[in-house]
Amino acid sequence: MKDYYEILNISKNASEDEIKASFRTLAKKYHPDLNPNDKEAEQRFKEINEAYEVLGDADKRKKYDTFGHAGVNGQGGYNQDFGGFGDIFDDIFDIFGGGFGSGYGQTSSRRRGPSKGADLRYNLNLDFKEAVFGIEKEIQIRKSENCGNCDGTGVKPGSSKETCGKCNGSGEVRYAQQSPFGQFVRVATCDECNGTGEIIKEKCANCSGTGKEIKNRKIKVKIPAGVDTGSIISIQGEGEAGERGGPSGDLFIYITVREHDVFKRKGNDIYFTVPISFVEASLGAEIEIPTLDGTIKYSIPEGTQTGTQFRLKNKGVPNVRGIGKGDIYFKVKVQVPKKLTERQKEILKQFAKEGGESHKDVKKGFLGKMKDAFGN
């Protein structure tokens, strides 16, 4: 006789969840209704059930681990009314589009109840300024809503729905099937009423009995300050209409922010470059810096080099949750004049002479650093 652990493809230290999971997988695979006229699958299915009835019970498993098959004394075996398999077999039989009873008159209602409508997505493009400061936008969406003529019932006004004669209002039909282990009852959604349990004899002329109509809707959306590309705004109940009286779905607005010509945004911080003159960089100066709130004056020190970065705290983008702001970081770039008058040239030559600067000196210093870096 085969080892029960081997039959379920599990180790002897397997947990209860691992035993149950392996049983579900194997039982689905070898179920006779999925393997008609396959004697080997039928025998395998029987062994799987026998193994699980023992290993799935803590007390029986303990006896089996201690005394082997003699310890359970034939307690394993296929039980036609499924004993303690319960929810496991309910799950297995769902693969047939319904459920199974054991053939003893069990019933269960599967009539479809209310369900939420589908969610909708809308892509919204914003300018940099709109995203930073927030704005109210009006968007237009096309969606299904409950028919205004029949209030979503699908029935002609003045008429009413009738109970489905095929399923007697249960929303499901049952088919008896024979198997090597007894009679099973397969449960499926009624194809006459599509699981609603009701039939519409006189349909609404406006929606042809669907209970839905497509409409274009304009919706005002408040965009909070600080949103960025990837932000999502949800509006509850603005999606597709629900089914059978269920609530409407939701509308999700996906934000994309266009890039700014000057400002580069990273999170809630803003980065940009400011040009300054050679004289301003050398002597220091008070320069104008653009911010989200307008232009401000900022003093840069003398001797400022190209690429030097400065920070303006709390001048960046507002946090979308309304807590604080980011910062502004700006770098300076020294602009070298392209055209000089003869007088300007003479002044610069005199400046270089008095400062002891020459191209040869600069080049020599640079080459010296290169040699130090590469060891040559």
Roughly how many Å is the radius of gyration?
39 Å
Helix content: 25-40%
The ordered H/E elements are: HHHHHHEEHEEEEEEEEEEHEEEEHH
Number of strands: 16
What attributes does this structure have?
alpha+beta; HSP40/DNAj peptide-binding domain; 10 helices; Chaperone, DNAj Protein, Chain A; 376 residues; three-stranded antiparallel β-sheet; 4 domains
Set out the fold topology.
Elements: H1 4-7, H2 16-30, H3 39-55, H4 58-67, H5 69-72, H6 87-93, E1 100-101, E2 120-126, H7 128-133, E3 135-146, E4 162-163, E5 172-179, E6 182-189, E7 198-199, E8 212-223, E9 232-235, E10 251-257, E11 264-266, E12 269-277, H8 278-283, E13 285-291, E14 294-300, E15 309-312, E16 328-335, H9 342-355, H10 359-374
Parallel strand pairs: 2-10, 12-16
Antiparallel strand pairs: 1-6, 3-8, 4-7, 5-6, 9-10, 11-12, 13-14, 15-16
Overview of the molecule:
The chain has 376 residues and is of the alpha+beta class. It folds into four domains: 93 residues, DnaJ domain (Helix Hairpins, Orthogonal Bundle); 138 residues, Ribbon (Chaperone, DNAj Protein, Chain A), CATH 2.10.230; 73 residues, HSP40/DNAj peptide-binding domain (Sandwich); 34 residues. The chain is built from ten helices and 16 strands. Strands 11-12-16-15 form a four-stranded mixed sheet. The chain has a three-stranded antiparallel sheet with strand order 1-6-5. A three-stranded mixed sheet has the order 2-10-9. A hairpin with a 2-residue loop joins strand 11 and strand 12. Helix 2 packs antiparallel against helix 3.
